[in-house]
Specification:
457 residues, mainly alpha
Amino acid sequence: MMKSAGPLSIKKESGIILHLGLPLAGAQLAQISMSFVDTIMAGNYHSDDLASVAIGSSFFMPLFTLITGIIMAMSPIISQLFGARKLSVIGEKIWPGLWIALFLSLPVILILRHMTPVMNLFGFEPEVIMITNGYLRALVWGVPAAFLFVALRFFNEALGATRPALYITAIGLLVNIVANYTLIYGHFGFPEMGAVGTGWATAIVFWVMCILLFIYTFRQKAYRRFQLLSNFKLPVKKDIKEMFRIGVPIGISMGMETSIFCSIALLMGSLGTALVAAHQIAMNIASVTFMITLGLSMAITVRIGHLIGKKRFIEARKSGFTGMGICTVFMCTMALIMVLFPEQIIRIYTREEEVVSTALLLIIMAAIFQIPDGIQVSGSASLRGLKDTRIPMYVNLISYWMIGFPLAYITGIVYEWGSVGLWAGLIAGLSAAAVLHTLRFHKKTRALINRFPPGHI
């Protein structure tokens, strides 16, 4: 029998999570700041271009999130191996993630290049459809790089190396600003492209970030023990199957969450361009806070994975609930800021009074769902650390598509409550997911502790 290490206090556990998570939160903040820059620059160019970026993002993000979720299987797989000190196996596990990232880029590219029928179905204005198509067809050139970067990022983060993604994403943000300035407005001899320039800027940024993280990963001295290059291999059925078994439910779960937000944006589109622009602003603000908690949640997954690998189940449970508490406190703070300073925040994005007046109500709705959003994202991340992904997928299906979306459609469209009804559905879906993920984590960790009590491992 092997005795487990003494339990850490909540203060120390919080310190560990924050040490891992703050760089990840910073990386997520830098990533969403690119969307922030896209929104501001496109919005200041023309409202049609802002609407086109919003609609194009609504098509791209569910696909991006789905594939990212599948690749995210690398995080619990590698973190548990690292916690168990099975170092000889780790070098092999980077390759399935890279192969999956490359192969799954192809269907995403094909889908994004053929979205016109969908936009016609939603009744978007012809000018907006034309601009959106140009935006998407530029963006797809960066899709393979985007997914390869994600795979390399999760590999590094699973080993506790959370700063490289922060530094490289910060570089990507700077490149994004310069590329947007150059291509949207037509500077330095380039043509004026509007929202289409935003798509090209995004593609360029993806490739810059991918190349930089690739160089870091394969030249890092600390990783020589993993023999990454000598462990190179073509796709192996067993490894790919493991990735899909864990990752597909993650991808579907995240895709269902993202797609409900994007579906609400598309329903907003049927109510008018000004409402789409207002929704995009409020959603972009809410996305900033969500991305920070998502970064912290990725750290929770890694931390729990390390502890599970070491068979320290009590500490894994404490780590999960501590992480949920950190995310909840942060989201409460952000909600308070939104309530106190809504107009000041909105006017960062636009000066059009029609858009400002509409967005004022939506940002208050966004403030309301901050708390359940923080709980559900950290709860699902805690479950990922346990490699528990299938049941959380069903939870998201029920929460978002059997509760959230029907309620949003009925209240917002059928009963004509408009934007308030649509966002009420979002709040209901997030709240259901928050409760169910938390209960699931409580049940799973309690079962592990009862099965393997301290001193009997």
